Amino acid sequence: MKIHQIRNATLIIEVQDKFILVDPMLGGKGTAGPTFTLFRFKPQRNPIVGLPQNAEDVLAKTTHCILTHLHPDHLDKAGEAFLKKHDIPVSCSVKDEKELLKRGLNVQTVVDYWKEATFLDGTLEGIPARHGYGFVARPMGNVMGYMLRLPKEKSVYLSSDTIYTDAVKKVLSDYKPDVSVVAAGSAQLDVFKPLLMTKEDVLQFCTDAPGKVIANHLEAVNHCPTTREELNMEIVKRDIKNTLVPNDGEVMLF
Q1: Is residue 66 part of a domain?
Q2: Does residue 251 fall inside a structural domain?
Q3: Would 9 be classed as within a structural domain?
Q4: Which among 47, 90, 31 has a CA at the least distance from the CA of 221?
Q5: Residues 167-199: pLDDT tens digits?
Q6: Looking at residue 191, which CATH number applies to its domain?
Q7: How many angstroms separate the CA atoms of 96 and 111, rounded?
C-alpha cells in the first residue's frame, strides 16, 4: 500500500491497481473560497497553497473516491468537476447521499455509522466524527470517518474532521488500525472553540494509535494555525515514534 499526501485532507490510497481519492480539494491557490477567519488568523483566500507538482499524474489514475463530508476544503468545485468528468464511483455517508446525487456525482457506496458496506473486495465502515468542541459542532454539520479494510492490505482509519471522542478512541483501541489519518491543523474560526483536535489531543491520538499515524490537514487553509514544524517538534519532544507528518506531494509506503 502507498498513500499519497496531496494537500490538506486530500490524499490517495494506492492498493494494487486501485487509486482511492479521499476528500478532493483540487482547485488552484485561492480558488476554493473566501477566508475562513478575519481576525483570529491572517485573512487569506483558500487554499493558501497550490497543488504539488506531482499531483496531476497520480490524480489521473483515480479509480474511486471516498468523501467524509461536504465542506469546501474537502470537496471544492474543482474536485466535484473532476469526479463528474471522469465518472468516478463515490462512497459517502448516508447523510450526504441525497445532496451528492443532486450534484450529479456517481454515488456507488452509501455508508452508515458503525455499519460495514461492501467496498472493492473488502469493507468500508462508517465511524462517527464530531467537527468541533462544544456548540460549534452543530452548525458544522455531519461528518463521517471511515475504517477501510481490504484483503491482504493494511487497515486504514480515516478519522476525518473530528475532535478526540469516545468513538475515535474506541476505533484505535478495539479495531487497532494499521494506519490512522488524523486532521492535525487545530482549525478554529473567529468565534467558538476549535473545530478539530487541539494539538494536545492530536498528540494523544498519536500516542494511543497502535499502528502508524499520518497527520495532515496542515498549512493549506487559513484557519489551521498548527504547522508541520511545530507538530514535528512536539513529536520529537515526546518521543512519539509512529507518526508521519508528510509534505504535500509526499508518498508513504506501508
Answers
A1: yes
A2: no
A3: yes
A4: 47
A5: 999 999 999 999 999 999 987 866 678 889 999
A6: 3.60.15.10
A7: 10
Q: Which of 171, 146, 169 is nearest to 158 (CA)?
A: 146
Residue range(s) defining the domain that contains residue 228 = 2-245
Give the pTM.
0.95
Q: Cβ(181)–Cβ(217) under 8 Å?
A: no
Residues 6+ apart with CB under 8 A from 180: 156, 157, 159, 171, 172, 205, 209, 211, 212, 213, 214
pLDDT tens, 66-108?
A: 999 999 999 999 999 999 999 999 999 999 999 999 999 999 9
**Residue 245 carries which side chain, given as an amino acid letter?**
V
DSSP for residue 194: -
Number of H helices, E strands in the chain: 7, 14
* Three cell numbers, residue 63: 479509480
- For the chain, what's the residue count? 254
Q: Based on the structure, what is the number of domains in the chain? A: 1
By CB neighbour count within 10 A (0-12 exposed, 13-18 middle, 19+ buried), where does 173 fall? exposed
Q: Measure CA 207 to chain center.
A: 19
Q: What are phi and psi of 111, to 5 degrees?
A: -120, 140
pLDDT in tens, 11-58: 999 999 999 999 999 999 988 766 676 666 576 788 999 999 999 999
E strand residue ranges, 64-216: 64-66, 90-93, 107-111, 116-119, 122-129, 143-149, 156-158, 179-183, 212-216
